[in-house]
Amino acid sequence: MLETYNDNHSDAIDLICEHHLGVLGARDSRISSINEEGIHLSTSDGGSTLERTLEFLEMPNTNEEVVGVLLASLSDARSKAPSNVPKTKIELEFEKTRRLKTYFTEVFERRDVSSNILELKFKGGLGELPNLGNDAFLYFIVDSSGETDDFPPGFSMETFRRSGTKGLRRHYSGAYYTIREYGEDAIDVWFVRHADAGPLSQWAENVSVGGKAAIWGPRTSFKPPQNTNRYLFIADETAQPAVLSSIENLPDQCEYACLFETHDDSSSFELGDKSDFVEWIYRKQEKAGEGTGLIKKISELKLDTENLYIFGAGETRQMSAIRRQLMSSQNLSSDQITMVGYWSRSSL
User: Fold this and answer.
1) Three-state DSSP class for 132?
2) pLDDT digits over 232-252, tens only?
3) Among 127, 154, 156, residue whose Cα is nearest residue 141
4) Which domains does the chain have, with CATH numbers?
């Protein structure tokens, strides 16, 4: 998470430091660390380096809750900033997504895809959900407290996003998941069983048929250049449904290859007519997000990059390392590669 915000959203951290924390002329701001006390920021007022902290009122349990503290601080900073201060990239993204709807649905079926992937079919309330295909992803919000199985009147992504850890977030947890397959008023979604499961994974493991969820979206990150006719996909378990859906939407006559990382043979699964184009890479004793076999395989690739598009997703730091490796070793333009962080090893 630190890398994502420091690399892509330093403008938001500057805004927080200047208008939420009061550092006049804040610049070169970064998240230096996150611990049980809060989010520690390093910034400059143009003359010296300053350290500031966004303190936690309650200890967050997930990265999503840490992001909630950042967004609440950003909202406060925006309310205090002069009207001529430019919008940050995060705020511009929020504006783009403001038209997206919140849908309410429930679990219809459960099945195991592999030893560490569970599929839930959600049905009902999805008749107007756009089918974007490819890596379409949704934000799922569920009751993680066990105290209720419903949502308050007027509940939406907007009300959830604006609430702090003492508000709705005490009862509800949220995270992004990709759609494996669309059906009639239904979607199939894969949940990975993690050793250190977060609230959404725990909910998926325990939820019964009829369990309710609110979902917001969809959006997509899969954006190949116009003349692309060859594809390389790179994915750990969390991104394999996105890749499989994207493959099924490729134009005819396109070539593709996949590198799928997973725990071991028991966590691979039947691929049908795609099996000849997928290479499984097993972590074995290595932890998820820390496997060395995938980056080793990528370092050995000799790619013809003409009309090639590379799409990868998985653990944030692992995807950043893979992107750096590919950009330094292959003749690629920036629009030929999309590497997305779907989850992060805990920074707490």
Assistant:
1) coil
2) 999 999 999 999 999 999 998
3) 156
4) 2-95 (3.20.180), 100-219 (2.40.30.10), 230-343 (3.40.50.80)
